[in-house]
């Protein structure tokens, strides 16, 4: 194909992230550099309540971040329940590059980030704090599907959301990243699917990559992105593989997932793209090597 897909990512705000990722690729960066640069865009945006700075806190008022990045060589770095540092994805990268480990959590992750020279930053913005205090008045933990796309007033969006981003260079190298502040008003200590390899993100050489968004517990339960990539390895298209995983969740969980959103996004080794969700409303951004970009609605099961 003359103008193959370079970057895909979850939700409408993925478009700006894709542009930053493509710019990094075009400047000579690797696919890992590209997905890191892309993930940093929503992380630094205080108007995005789902990722990084400006994210909604847990029930106790702490903003805690989960992030992972992975490439086709099986290089993985991740952090979970990270506090006081804006760019969780860059801490994940340092875990990958500077330690023998794949995942650091909580206080140890924060300490590692600060030791690596990252700046301590208060992540709870006045707007997010106000939404949290409003939530405390009723304290009903009820995730709202697709709230990442809702522009409404503070507190109207009870989900946090997440960017998952996948890159494919012109010569076919693959990497992905996923970063989030997790579900809004989650229990302290809760970790979602996003920072877990095989749940929020998976990449395999010669096959492709996949990432997920939505209610993380439903993804973790089936090791969602490992499943999507396994289906692609077995010959399914990225689209068919995403559909298979969503159908599996629905079969497995029945009424328990009523009203919950889960979305998968996949990128094949050949640059083909697939996306599918439980509910309508999941969107994703596709950017080609020329820079041509579009935001598309994913099909859904219900
Ligand atoms: C989580 N999957 O922490 C993330 C949140 C998300 O759309 O993607 N919401 O469960």
Can you describe what's shown?
InterPro entries: Ntn_hydrolases_N, Peptidase_T2, TAT_signal. Pfam families: Asparaginase_2 (PF01112). This protein has 302 residues and is α+β, with helices and mostly antiparallel strands. It has helices at 14-26, 31-43, 88-98, 106-115, 126-138, 216-220, 224-233, 238-253; strands at 5-10, 65-71, 76-82, 103-105, 162-168, 174-180, 201-204, 208-214, 262-268, 273-277, 283-288, 293-297, 299-300. The strands form two sheets. The chain has an eight-stranded mixed sheet. The radius of gyration is 17 Å and the shape is globular. The structure holds N-hydroxy-L-asparagine. N-hydroxy-L-asparagine (SD4) is lined by residues 148, 159-162, 180, 182-183, 192-194, 213-216.
SSE diagram, text form:
Elements: E1 5-10, H1 14-26, H2 31-43, E2 65-71, E3 76-82, H3 88-98, E4 103-105, H4 106-115, H5 126-138, E5 162-168, E6 174-180, E7 201-204, E8 208-214, H6 216-220, H7 224-233, H8 238-253, E9 262-268, E10 273-277, E11 283-288, E12 293-297, E13 299-300
Parallel strand pairs: 3-4, 10-13
Antiparallel strand pairs: 1-5, 1-11, 2-3, 2-6, 5-6, 7-8, 8-9, 9-10, 11-12
Helix pairs in contact: 1-2, 2-3, 7-8
The structure holds N-hydroxy-L-asparagine.
Strand proportion: 15-25%
Order of helices and strands: EHHEEHEHHEEEEHHHEEEEE
Given the helix and strand composition, which structural class is it?
Answer: alpha+beta
Radius of gyration: 17 Å
**Number of strand segments:** 13
Widest β-sheet, arrangement of strands:
4-3-2-6-5-1-11-12
Mean pLDDT: 92
Q: Which ions and ligands are bound to the chains?
A: N-hydroxy-L-asparagine
User: Which runs of at least 5 residues are low in confidence (pLDDT < 50)?
Assistant: 149-160
Q: Tell me the major beta sheet.
A: 8 strands, mixed
Sum up the overall morphology in one term.
globular
| Helix content bin | 25-40%
Q: How far do the termini sit from each other?
A: 33 Å
Number of helices: 8
């Amino acid at each position: 194909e003359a103008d193959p897909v370079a970057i895909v990512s979850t939700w409408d705000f993925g478009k700006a992230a894709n542009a930053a990722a493509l710019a990094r690729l075009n400047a000579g960066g690797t696919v890992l550099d590209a997905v890191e640069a892309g993930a940093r865009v929503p992380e630094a945006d205080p108007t995005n309540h789902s990722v990084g700075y400006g994210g909604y806190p847990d029930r106790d008022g702490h903003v805690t971040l989960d992030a992972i990045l992975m490439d086709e060589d099986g290089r993985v770095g991740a952090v979970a329940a990270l506090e006081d540092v804006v760019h969780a994805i860059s801490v994940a990268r340092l875990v990958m590059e500077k330690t023998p480990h794949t995942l650091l959590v909580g206080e140890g992750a924060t300490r590692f980030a600060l030791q690596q020279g990252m700046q301590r930053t208060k992540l709870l913005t006045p707007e997010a704090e106000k939404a949290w205090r409003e939530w405390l008045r009723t304290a009903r933990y009820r995730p709202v599907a697709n709230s990442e796309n809702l522009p409404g007033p503070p507190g109207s969006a009870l989900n946090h959301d997440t960017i998952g981003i996948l890159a494919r260079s012109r010569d076919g190298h693959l990497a992905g990243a996923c970063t989030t502040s997790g579900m809004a008003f989650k229990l302290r200590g809760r970790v979602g699917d996003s920072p877990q390899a095989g749940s929020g993100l998976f990449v395999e050489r010669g096959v492709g990559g996949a990432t997920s968004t939505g209610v993380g517990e439903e993804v973790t339960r089936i090791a969602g992105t490992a499943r999507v990539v396994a289906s692609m390895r077995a010959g399914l298209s990225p689209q068919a593989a995403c559909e298979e995983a969503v159908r599996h969740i629905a079969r497995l969980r029945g009424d328990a997932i009523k009203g919950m959103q889960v979305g998968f996004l996949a990128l094949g080794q050949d640059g083909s793209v697939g996306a599918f969700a439980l509910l309508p409303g999941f969107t994703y951004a596709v950017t080609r090597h020329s820079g041509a970009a579009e935001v598309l609605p994913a099909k859904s099961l219900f």
